[in-house]
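Reviewers of the previous submission asked for a worked example of the structure-prediction workflow described in the proposal, so we include one complete record here. The input consisted solely of the amino acid sequence. No template or homolog information was supplied to the procedure at any stage.
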Amino acid sequence: MLILNGVKVPGHNLTVRANFRIETKELSGQTSASDRSAEGIKPMTFSVTLEIPCNHPKDLGRVIALARSTDGRGNMTIYQIVNSTAEACKIREVTFTDQFTITEQGRINSWQVGFTMVEYRSIPEKVEQRQPRPVTVEQNAGENVETTVPQPINNQEQLTGFLSVLKKVDESLA
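From that input alone, the workflow returned the following structure tokens.
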């Protein structure tokens, strides 16, 4: 069963496959070393396939309408998802992405529908946004030094001491 914003997606023989990528970068250069650096965890994607009988074209139209739906600003609709695979992966919100395919299955008189949804505001994304961001300041003879400045929780937070100096330097470089 797949429910998006309270609407049960029509069809049968539903298959949901979840996956995500762990991005890494090779650091070995021209050597045979296996050193890698973590580049982040990408949002989870769901590949969905299902069948809709050809004598139910309105059901196919409803699935297409879900995939094409946008908000008032032209952004893809964000759906609350109810599905056992999504629940197991702790995913609550998704948007349609990539391809939406419809293949007529003549021998069984149905359409095979396939589409991809991507996790909206993934847990790794939320964690990354909470991490302090590095700030580069220039020192003597054009040498760059990287330092990490904690980001304020809100714009009203007061910076003191060294952090206020770094903020001024950052603003003057921008």
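The chain has a mean pLDDT of 82. We consider this example representative of the routine output the project will generate in years two and three.
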